Amino acid sequence: MKARIVRIGNSKGIRIPKPLLEQTGLADEVEISVENNRLIIAPAEPEPSPPRKGWAKAFKEMAASGDDALVDSDRQVPTQWDEEEWEWE
Predict the structure, then answer these.
(1) At residue 76, does pLDDT exceed 80?
(2) Residue 25 in contact with residue 16, Cβ under 8 Å?
């Protein structure tokens, strides 16, 4: 499939036909690079979310629905250290 290079202000661009966009899954933001004198257009990598983002809300929802119990609470066996050395402050 051929496309024309068109003037866009001081730059130039191409119009990517809809079938190619659908086939590649390209959306609003792309990464452009050059390899062996060819332009490579790929979907932009999404920004990574901060670690543990949304955990506080999820834990509140779990507590509200009663889904925050320990999974193995009935199987916990105290160790000698728990019984003899542990001290609560």
Answers:
(1) no
(2) no
